[in-house]
Amino acid sequence: MTGPDNGVDLLLRRATDNLRPDVDRLVAGGITRGRTRQRRARIGTAVAAVAVFGVIGAAAAVVPLGGSPDSARHTDIASDPTTTSTTPPAPVEDTKAQKKEDRELREVPAPLTATLAVGVADFAQTIASLAPGHEVTQPLTETSYPLVDEVEEQIAHFGVDGMLATVTIMRSSSAFEWECRQGAELGNRVCTQLADGAWQQVWGPDTADQVTAQGVTVWRHGFAVSVLSYNAAEGKDLAPLQPEPALSLAELTAIATSDVWFN
Amino acid sequence: MSGTHGDFEEFARARTPALYRAAWLLCGEHHRSEDLVQETLAKLFVRWHSRLRGPIDNPAGYAHTTLVRTFISAQRRKSNHERPTEHLPEVVSSERGIDVQLTLRDALAELEPLDRAVLVLRYLDDRSVAETAEAIGVSPGAVRNRTMRALERLRGELGTSLHDLMKP
Predict the structure, then answer these.
(1) What is the reported pTM?
(2) Which of A31, A222, A227, B49 is 20 to 30 A from B34 in CA distance terms?
(3) Contact between residue A200 and residue A194 where contact means Cβ atoms under 8 Å apart
């Protein structure tokens, strides 16, 4: 720094040079908090993947995002005011036992009991076979639509009958039950445990920014499989092509619950 | 530069002392400074490991910008507007060091949080006016005005002790 203020930088440095923070503890605490944020964010990857690139509309109001302060899930996200919740929030009893149970569910990852079997290059064919009668494009490759194909994370967006659809498969980093229940306070979603022990959340249809979306997330084998379908070519701000999303809830359920995704 | 957990931990260890110094100037006390640093590292951790976004071009700059923005956001929440009441538990190497710290802390406490942020970015992190403006989301003119105002206020608070504080 130059000029009449040139002593300020020296003053600030002199006043702080001999501070001795506990680096080990601060870094450990930062990483712990970061992992918690990361875990919460992953729950809503289906939306996060889209929201990051600004193509999200209705899905932001219905997909569980785990309550992260950084996530796209906020109560001020537009949603259809006529939509009513089918899963009323559970009464909150602020007891230590409940908090302990919640913490255990949140912090213990679901066991990994399978590996992913389908590369994203084959997603379109797989969707077409699980929901016959629809025209499914190859994964979209525009920069607005991230394509991820990794060992524990897959994300792809498609056109289904000319309308947007998204499939995400993510490693689950908390107990299935905990992840399934996250975001229940937003309403318009049903979280249930399936006969085989998997957890399933059905959400929507919900409308925002002109576009209606719905989806199903199923937690099994250590992964969360999310399938979203829209009724327009983009996730928001585009005229719908039909009243309902291209894939029905029954079809979304068939896709999300299929064992074809796993070895 | 982003990627593995080991890389992140190494980076975090190297940057934490500098982040803490900036946090202390902003917050004026130990516990809130530690909380701000950990919150900053948490956000950086998520960004560092994000597969949906590209690598961070300048991790050190990104970390300090995140710290200042996190501080400003926290200040906007009413619960964070209380003034610090406890004294510093940091280990300092000399009584003179303590004098400088306490005097400067008290003077900084009289500034608006955003003015403190401007001073930290410009004089501790050595950012330009334009870089500071971008970091805190105001115009370059506002940064200049806030800098002038903050320095005047600081000189007024420190008075003749400013010269003494600058003695080696």
Answers:
(1) 0.52
(2) B49
(3) yes
